[in-house]
Amino acid sequence: MIGIESGAGMPGPSGVRADAHPGAGEHRESWFARHIRRRIDAVSLGSKLVACIIVLLTLGSFALSFSIRQLVSSYMMEKIDTQLINQAELVFNNIELLRQSSGTTENSPSMTSYFLQARDKTNGKTENLLVPALKGGVDSVPVLPRDDSGVTFGQPFTTAAAISFDADSASASSSTADHATLSRARSPWRVVAMRWVDKTTDGDSYVRGVIYVGLSLSDSIDTTNTLTRYSAMVGIAVVLLGGVIGSIVVSATLTPLKRIEKTAAKIAAGDLSQRVPSAPENTEVGSLSASLNAMLARIEQSFREQQETTDKMKRFVSDASHELRTPLAAIHGYAELYKMQREFPGALERADESIAHIEASSSRMTVLVEDLLSLARLDEGRGIDLTQQVPLTAVVSDATDDLHALDPERGIRVGSLELEPSSDGSGSRFAFREGAMPDVTLSGDGSRLRQVVTNIVGNIHRYTPADSPVEAAIGVLPASISPESLSRMPSTETSLRHLIEAIEVGQSMQVGMNYAIVRFSDHGPGVPEESRSQIFERFYTADPSRARLKGGTGLGMAIAQSVVKAHRGFICATQTDGGGLTLTVVLPVAPVEPKIEPVPAETAKRGWMTKSDSRTAKSERRTRQR
Fold it and tell me: How far is the C-alpha of 242 from the C-alpha of 61, rounded, in Å?
């Protein structure tokens, strides 16, 4: 009978503390951190990503291999312990059979790989009853404690191996034994101690001694090492393959960023027309590309606007200097002429003529300076009051009366303005309906709007024959476009077509803003198509010599455009059907009020009301209460 008792103890680890100088350590760490940071910043993003992938795969492979090694080692150790405890009595009871099996072959089978030592307390004799035999006469036995008092019975423990060589084999030595045999012999042992219980002749049991049963851990260590090598090889293969695949994936992923980089380089070289290649906007690169393209479009637009503003400012300064130089030169010339001729006979008559020319030139210069000041105030957002209630119909009617007074022979027709399909089927167009002009009142600056209409009528008076007919019309139409968007539209025919499309939508859906549309159409020589958008530029005149003859400064249409845009409106010039020029002014009046349909009698009786019907009924009740 063999009894088993358990118990064990392990010493705790000791720590070593190393002190350093704080000041020197901080200095070295700071310099090292800066050096490492500079090196890391110098590495490309793709290399950083690939390095991170390789590091993560390496750490994962190492952790997996270590975990597998620990699990397998613990599992095999547990199996060996179970095998020792369960088969110890069987091994002890079959010593003779195991000896015979051990002596039959040089390579011991699994049952003969046990080590068995018996310590008989009755006679103080210790004998190795079973020792596994290795190749080349090499024996490996566990190093056992001399004193059995400190041993915990039934609790397996690990101990080192002691190597010896068989005396019967004269050639057996560490130099002749192969490396595998020596490695197996040096492997530690797992040993369990048990009480040797025997029986007396009368059948009583007593403890005769101690039995040590051991198994070599060479197979377990070899299995664990082999599995570790395979895990390491697989881990290295995974790291290498992951590095290659990661490099390919990272390179393909960063290709759009490289295209963005090349595009940015071209933009930095001055080509603002470049755009970043588009990508799906649900991705980070696609969202970045869309944002960059929007930013580049705005930058390009701002740059072009700034360039156009700079060019206009240069041209404005040049034209203003030229326009001011002409009357100043006339004033200076006539003053010098008066000085030269005042001593001659008839000087008084010549002086009156010189003073008349000086007065005319100063008057022209005064008008020019006042127009320049008006434009400067409008550019700064000053000199305009948008809170007045302006009777637009009266303003247009007064302007037509002034034109009739200036040109009595001119035929002037007034009426309303409507939208109708064009004859060629290309879309809608504004149509003139002769008759009374509709009564329109809007919020704005009355004097400035009167100035706009006066400038248009003045141009008709200056640049068209006195007997050519003119049509003036007013209309109020809804358009699905905001006044802010309308005021930002350029003064071109394309913008007018967009406005007509917005009016079509506004009329069909009754949404948007009501706009007052004022149109003056003449049948004079007109303006070439390429020059129509330029008539709103400062100091632009289709015929400069005729403009000076008529007293024009070239600022009338520029002032009109600035006033209209200050009212959040739109102005443009188009060709009149049959020849001539048509000027269209669009000004916001009020938001479109949705139409409220009356509630049907049958629906009201049944009590079926929609939300809009309910609101209509409540409004009608409030009106009746008032």
Answer: 11
